[in-house]
């Protein structure tokens, strides 16, 4: 946990569009609790209990997601012409 503050500025992580929703995820900072001050990233359509998206990642998980060897497909690639 302590090593989250080492290295690059955590705010420098790029914002990517959510694959489910096609719009950029939003970065938040936790304001209370044990994780206060830590960033997390959430889809604008986050609502897993209501049929929405379940994209919700803490800083480290989001960094891992960005570093994934499988690149995210651009949203346009999911649209088939015709
Ligand atoms: Zn989403």
UniProtKB/TrEMBL annotation:
InterPro entries: Znf_GRF (IPR010666). Transmembrane segments: none annotated. It comes from the Eukaryota. The keyword Metal-binding applies. Keywords: Metal-binding, Zinc, Zinc-finger. Residues 18-62 form the GRF-type domain. GO terms for molecular function: zinc ion binding. The keyword DNA repair does not apply. This is GRF-type domain-containing protein. It comes from Triticum urartu (Red wild einkorn).
């Amino acid at each position: 946990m302590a090593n989250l503050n080492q290295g690059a500025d955590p705010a420098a992580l790029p914002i990517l569009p959510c694959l489910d929703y096609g719009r950029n995820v939003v970065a938040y900072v936790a304001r209370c609790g044990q994780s206060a001050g830590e960033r997390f990233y959430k889809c604008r359509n986050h609502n897993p209990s209501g049929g929405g998206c379940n994209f919700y990642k803490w800083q480290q998980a989001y960094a891992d997601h960005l570093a994934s060897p499988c690149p995210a497909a651009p949203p346009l690639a999911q649209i088939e012409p015709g």
